[in-house]
Amino acid sequence: MAKIVRHLAAMAAVVLLGGLLSATLVRLAPGFEVDEQQLDARLSSESVQALRQARAGDRNIVRFYLHYLGRAMRGDLGESRTLNRPVRELLSERLPVTVRLAGLGLLAGWLCAVLLAVGATMARRAACDLAATLLGGIFLSMPAAVLALLFVYANAPACLVIALVVFPKVFSYTRNLLARSYESPHLVTAYAKGVGPLRILLWHVLPVTGAQLLAVAGISVSIALGAAIPVEALCGIAGIGQLAWQAALGRDLPLLVNLTVLVTVITLAANWGSEFAGQSFKTSAA
Amino acid sequence: MRRVRQFAWLLLALTVLASLGAGVWAPADYAMQFREVPNSPPSHQHLLGTDELGRDRFSRVLYGTRISLLMAPAAALLSTLLATLVGGVAGYLGGWWARAAMGATDLFLSMPWLFLLLVVRAMMPLNVAPVTSVAVTFLLLGLLGWAGSARVLCAGVRSLHDSDFVLQARASGLHELRLLAIQVLPNLKPVLLAQFWISIPVFIISEANLGILGLGVSEPLPSWGSLLREMESFTSFGFEAWKLAPLVLLVLVVSSFQIILSQEEVYA
Amino acid sequence: MKRRPLALFLFILLSLAAALGQSGGELKFYVHSDPKTFDPLAVADDASETIRYLTGGVLLRVNRRTQQAEPELATSWTIARDGRSITFNLRQQVYYSDGSPFSAEDVAYTMQRLMDPGLHSPTGDAFRSGSGAVHSHVDSPTRITITFPAPVAGLDKLFDQVAIVSSRSANKERAALGPFYVADYKPDSYVLLKRNPNYWRRDAAGRQLPYLESVRLGIQPNRDIEMMNFRRGEIDLINWLDSEYFDRLALQSPALVHDAGPGLDSEQMWFNQAPNAPIPAYKRQWFRSTNFRRAVSQAVNRADLSRVVYGGHAQPAAGPISPANQFWFNSKLHAPSYDPTGALRLLQQEGFRLQGTSLVDREGHGVEFSIITNAGNKSRERMATMMQQDLGKIGISVHVVTLDFASLLERITESYNYEGALLGMANTDLDPNAQMNLWLSSAENHQWNPKQKSPETAWEAEIDRLMREQAASLDPAKRKACFDRVQEIAVEQQPFIYLVYKNALSAVSATVANASPVVLRPQTYWNIETLSMRLQTASKH
Fold this sequence. Notes:
heterotrimer; A: 286 residues; mainly alpha; 11 helices; 79% helix; 0% strand; B: 268 residues; MetI-like fold; 13 helices
């Protein structure tokens, strides 16, 4: 219990630090204080000044962040500058979309990757390994933007794009880990003694590689979230990926800080969850 | 598999030679604009057709190969080394060190690094040479691309930390650093190779996407990433197979790297 | 005898068909972002402007084809001799979409809100001619006089942008006097506009307009997807079409694409002449030399830019006003011809010389500079690359740097940390008074050297004088003469190196009847009241 509390406290500290760092990065980036509207030749100099002043309040990043934390405690996450809507409303509308998209994509990506890696390794045929490598190489080399447009063109579900982005990365790690495991002398002996391939996989390979595979599972959440940005932006899917891209282009500080906090929480939860599972895995395997 | 590996070596060698000899093989300078024939299909004069400014696509693929083939693996190596350093040392030391390092890694994974890249671009002079801009881009990619793999490495090191052979090596008086370098890390080669192999195409594509920030390759210098971006307009313009040349080349080169680097002879 | 019932029957059948063909239906097209506001007075983005055009009732409308002001909610108007006031006679028996009556009080309320200094609206700022309040005097429910502190040039046509809001309705922003009202909005998805049941306008046969039942504005930022969906028949028009897409679509369905000729928009580059710019002094000296700018202008092949980048759907540009602006265009001006030899001669006059293949200045500095432009705009990226090659032929080394828009904006408006910039001008207003803040040397948007305390050059002082003179005059001929001279100075001095005027390209599905695209915005649906949907069959383009 104490361990869990310690972990949660550490998580909270990391999240808070992440929010502040993110706010600092956005504040330091060029273009923070400008607004596209300034280029409208019809605007008077007073109006242009007013546009500049609108962002002046956020110049002091520490003050902004403390103010933000105070409001966040009360459930007020601020208002998006680019969309003129409460951030809370935006996140509650869009988060389920991305969770669904990335979740399905992750599931499908992992399924393909593991099946292919296991198949290629267990088949012990050069042709199978080569085919799997080439397939992985194709999707690894294809820009996510092109994949996304291809799927829009074909009216196919966008989550498959995420799957195709995740799959080659997971496949690469999985295939290499499994291949290394299968090299172990005790497995060679087991094969020679006629132990079935499924038994070898479940009882002798996965326990050894489990911790690392779970770590891959943790980072694949970040990969999926990262892929969601171009996929949502290009496919016109109103998720947090699209929101993040619009916010970045518009230097929308309130939105970006909230999105960073959200992504940090998800990343921490995924990675620390996989770490815990890895440790329990080791314990039970032992 | 040996034949396949030989073919992979041959392909890589040919690609490297072709790119180094681009000045000889290329029918035209990569920047030369044949403005009478923009967007033309393959022909005798232009083997892969021309791009929207009438530049010979075949020449641009050759010259672009130089940039991408040199820079992307170097950046991939950098990110792999960083992942090894952070993940390996953290996993080996364990305890508080590992928790702090992995917390920092997760923070690293969550940060909007786009803004750091914007700051870097803002600090660079506008008249920087294209090659310098590319080098800085790939350096940044290498410095930012280590976090995911560090986690996997950390998990791997921790699982090996208490294994029998490591305990035996420690008991026999082997120094910790030597233990890490000689006994532990070689067993993590699968992860290191995976990280390296994945990073190459990811960095090539990312370099093209960083063009939106003013980083990456600047005109008229070509790169695989910038050539791959031509494919984005296929939905409006239909399928033009010759535009797939950079993709095919990238797939072959990346797959060749994977085949060459994976030493495991699992198969008969 | 038997033929008469048959003739009658056929007549009824044809009339019915005509009536059906001209009523009902939903027009679908895309806007490229969510509207930032539904308040028609605070409009500053394209999506909100689209909604304002379709829902807002205005006192007068500039006919997008003839470019002349025509009565709308005002049946007539007079501008006072001193140009400081305008009196409108308003249409009677007009009601908002929610049933509330329209009167002069609503106009007064609208002007009061529009001129609120806290609103900072581009529409409102266009009326600001001097310090002091704007007064509205309601003479009667159908007559109002609006008085300004100083004369406002082109006063009447400015009201084309002012949607009259209700002073009495519960939902002021949503009550519409235009052909449609906002019925539904789903963020990131669509805005649904429905036919205003109380719209005042009727067609020649006395039928109430608009013909369309509804307009669905999908929200789609991606132009590739827009094009794809147009070809699939999922949307009915593309209001602004890129030249590449235009040519591809024209190959398959030439009847669907429209090239209305040069639009109001231009693409131009300029050099940074700001005295406090963090650039080397010798470069600042180059950029401030008229001959240098003219040489660069002459060395650029505008015909190639039009042909290669825009597929011929653009025209080499001379000055700030395109021929699409029928009244204000100065027909005496011509685009600089492509003349690299002439360019080198001009440079030699300034002490530049060729050293091998590189141009150097008097002090031996190699002539090189960067041009920044916004990433993602393929046309600009390509133009910059072509200019790089053109200028390379006269020994000038150009670095093309594409930046995200916010970073670019920061450089050209705040830090002035740039050398050359390539951007475009989207002209929504025909009257050059809308460009006051571009031409006045003291203005924010005087891009090459903004916010000057006093004009640094004689020609900028002359432009200041001419712009103020045309703003204070009510005589169109005098105003034209002043602004003609401003255009001539701009061409002589080349503070902006105008490159091309882009053509107004659009695509309209065959299912849309009465479409007649023009150059002025909104090109395809400017006559929305009379658009209708033909009976649809399989409509993949």
